[in-house]
Design brief:
The protein has 357 residues and is α/β, with parallel strands linked by helices. 25% of the residues lie in helices and 27% in strands. Helix 4 packs across helix 5. The two termini are 31 Å apart. 46% of the residues are buried. The structure holds NADP nicotinamide-adenine-dinucleotide phosphate and zinc ion. The site of NADP nicotinamide-adenine-dinucleotide phosphate (NAP) has 31 residues, from helix 1, helix 4 and helix 5. Belongs to the zinc-containing alcohol dehydrogenase family.
């Protein structure tokens, strides 16, 4: 590769495992022929940003500029870009490139491509590290850019780019999107609360399974869940045994699977999207007796991310957010750690990010 021209960028980076985010200057590549350059307006804070900043999974390279629920407005497009123009409102999720020729890319599931490149904290083709959306602007190949429907507010639409597609993708793939089905959603955080909204839009009955009794009223009256179970209340859990066709588990910490498997009907599916730091214990007998399945799922392909976004536009689905300024990000991370967020923090990047010194 020849000399890569660069443009200055700035944002917030974690510099070590303390995960404290502080000002950081770096550079981004020039807008290539197939690239789109955009000014970042808003960026959601996913629990994965926190886990990566702390290097919980041992995958982190510092400095890390997190952020993969990024929306903004295009400022420049490359000469061979065909789908976007300057001024378009667009977004990027956690995936910024892939090989385009392997089995999963051919399946429109680039997220499982062995050469998939993450938007933050990964090595790009030119050997530079990718830096995410806690920053002033982004450069991304047009094939990995998502269009945001006109009717959706950009700040509340941002979390759909990760939280939204991560729960939408397995619901579709595993056939948990059929009207009348009973779906459980475990953990009412960023992913969980949009799972409730999509599952309701698909016409299913939704039960939230939560550790936080205080979320019950909102789950039912604001988010539209049909029922709410407090996971440590054994009576409540017992009454709901063998009633669910599928469960989307979004819990970020170690937790027991046995009670969840008990909630599943014959042939029910437990979909793991939450990513606890340590392995979970898998009780096998309830799987065998009920022909039940436990599966994992990661974000979603680009085509289905756009499909999810368009469905969100049609049903007016967005995240319930707390819009915060850049100087609140470290406090937000502490609150996220304690499951104290209703239900997604989104950073007002364009209005509150000051150039790094
Ligand atoms: P979040 O907003 O922090 O929500 C997680 C929820 O899990 C909490 O609100 C809480 O809900 C519940 N929870 C937390 N600690 C718990 C504990 N010790 N025991 C039981 N429940 C607990 O996080 P998020 O952004 O939605 O992300 C959720 C997980 O998904 C994270 O692990 C993240 O890394 C992962 N993730 C995976 C993908 C993927 O591609 N598969 C994509 C995005 C995120 P209650 O208060 O209702 O109990
Ligand atoms: Zn995420």
């Amino acid at each position: 590769m020849g000399k890569v021209l660069e443009k200055e960028a700035y944002g917030l980076a974690a510099k070590d495992e303390s995960a404290v985010l502080s000002p950081f200057r770096f550079s981004r590549r020039e807008t290539g022929e197939k690239d789109v350059r955009f000014k970042v307006l808003f960026c959601g804070i996913c629990h994965t940003d926190l886990s990566m900043a702390k290097n919980l999974w041992g995958l982190t390279t510092y400095p890390l500029v997190p952020g993969h629920e990024i929306v903004g407005v295009i400022t420049e497009v490359g000469a061979k870009v065909t789908k976007f123009n300057a001024g378009d409102k667009v977004g990027v999720g956690y995936m910024s490139s892939s090989c385009r020729s392997c089995e999963s890319c051919s399946d429109d599931q680039e997220n499982y491509c062995p050469k998939m490149i993450l938007t933050s904290g990964a090595k790009y083709y030119d050997d530079t590290m990718t830096h995410g959306g806690y920053s002033d602007h982004m450069v991304c190949e047009e094939d990995y850019i998502i269009r945001i429907p006109e009717n959706l507010p950009l700040d509340a639409a941002a979390p759909l780019l990760c939280a939204g597609v991560t729960v939408y993708s397995p619901m579709k793939y595993h056939g948990l999107d059929k009207p009348g089905m009973h779906i459980g959603v475990v953990g009412l955080g960023g992913l969980g609360h949009v799972a409730v909204k999509f599952a309701k839009a698909m016409g299913t009955k939704v039960t939230v399974i939560s550790t936080s009794e205080s979320k019950k009223d909102e789950a039912i009256n604001r988010l539209g869940a049909d029922a709410f179970l407090v996971s440590r209340d054994q009576e409540q859990m017992k009454d709901a045994m063998e009633t669910m066709d599928g469960i989307i588990d979004t819990v970020s910490a170690t937790h027991p699977l046995l009670p969840l498997l008990g909630l599943l009907r014959y042939k029910g599916k437990l979909v793991m999207v939450g990513a606890p730091e340590k392995p979970l214990e898998l009780p096998v007998m309830p799987l065998i007796f009920g022909r039940k399945m436990v599966v994992g799922s990661m974000i979603g392909g680009i085509k289905e991310t756009q499909e999810m976004m368009d469905l969100a536009g049609k049903h007016n689905i967005t995240a319930d957010i707390e819009l915060i300024s850049v100087d609140y990000v470290n406090t937000a991370m502490e609150r996220l750690e304690k499951a104290d967020v209703r239900y997604r923090f989104v950073i007002d990047v364009a209005n509150t990010l000051e150039p790094a010194p």
